[in-house]
Specification:
homodimer; 154 residues; alpha+beta; 7 strands
């Protein structure tokens, strides 16, 4: 039986996880799906990427969708879909705040939990250096709408 | 170091896995991302869904994107992104062929491998019954373009 998640449950899932799948639009209007690592806070998903197709797409069309899931005991699952707007973080203070949040979440919790697509695993220093690199785009998704579901045993 | 996958490697990844993330477009033009279970064959991804938003979206706009990933030993990963066209399977023979492929892949291999979002786990019979249900839409994504990457240690 599939049940709807409350706002509190959705927020808790986004906070607990740091890995999801982002959908955006390419210039030709087709969808594009890529895995992302993120840190949730302030009703936003903070994330980063090196310059490339994903960033080009989001700059052209900032409407994005991020889906985050979690396997629970007994083969049950829960999943949140969040829609929002891509916003590039260019101001020094914004970048520093995002970086601090990302380092805390991905280093202290995320890296140990998720083994896939979490870059810069070798040391916190190299991760910080990479995220501070000019080629690394820091951004946030300002969440506008969310929906969440989970499987419940009867 | 990120390397590009060959056609053979991408096909092998899609065959090995049965779980990915599908992106499609909603009527208002925003992207929509959902997990799917699939079976790869004949340059198509065969899948199923009960009637709902995902099916409505793909009927309105058949351009979809499916991303499939795999964690490898030593924290390495590989990932394929496939773009293609949604096609609903309505003819009896097409439905039977897709059903056979899905049951073989998800039952014989997939269910044991992936614990999340594989429905009808209790018995092959109940899965077959559910997929044969009139409310269950069988469809395929006819792949038109693929790209694949993997992380290589130096």
């Amino acid at each position: 039986m599939i049940e709807t998640m409350s706002d509190k449950e959705m927020e808790e899932l986004l906070t607990t996880r740091c890995y999801g799948h982002l959908g955006c639009l390419m210039d030709d209007g087709r969808p594009y799906v890529v895995p992302i690592t993120y840190a949730y806070g302030y009703n936003c998903l903070f994330s980063f990427s090196f310059e490339g197709q994903k960033i080009d797409c989001m700059r052209s069309n900032p409407d994005v969708c991020v889906q985050v899931e979690q396997a629970l005991e007994g083969d049950r699952w829960r999943s949140v879909i969040a829609w929002g707007e891509f916003e590039e973080l260019t101001e020094e203070q914004e970048r520093t705040n995002a970086l601090t949040l990302l380092l805390n979440r991905l280093w202290n919790e995320g890296v140990k939990e998720h083994s896939i697509f979490v870059p810069f695993r070798n040391s916190e220093k190299s991760m910080e250096a990479a995220l501070n690199d000019e080629g690394c785009v820091l951004f946030r998704v300002n969440i506008e709408e969310m929906t969440g579901r989970y499987e419940k045993y009867e």
